[in-house]
Write a structure and sequence with these properties.
single chain, mainly alpha, 4 helices, binds zinc ion
Length: 110
Amino acid sequence: MTKQEKQTIKEKIENDICILTEQIGDLEEKVKPISPDCGLGRLTRLEAMGEQHVNNKVLDEARVRLTRLNNALQRIDKPMFGICIECEESIGVGRMSVRPESVRCVECAN
Ligand SMILES: [Zn+2]
């Protein structure tokens, strides 16, 4: 991986962290408890609860990815960045550009 490639990936990580942080903020607003007397009909309330369930799931996933991206940002200047933790081969710039939080190559991830 060249210095330039690392720089591009670093910018992508920082950009993704920014987007995710914003999404998490929005989702945290949406998953606040639904007040029992907020004037919704029964069906609407069930729908709202279903939606909340989905949002909670998305929120969990977003938080996990955010942690991984922050870890990737701390690893990026170290020699092990872009090296598979299983087979110790290079993960490949293509994969690292799409999923910079990867710690395994495509083969080991499957
Ligand atoms: Zn591997």
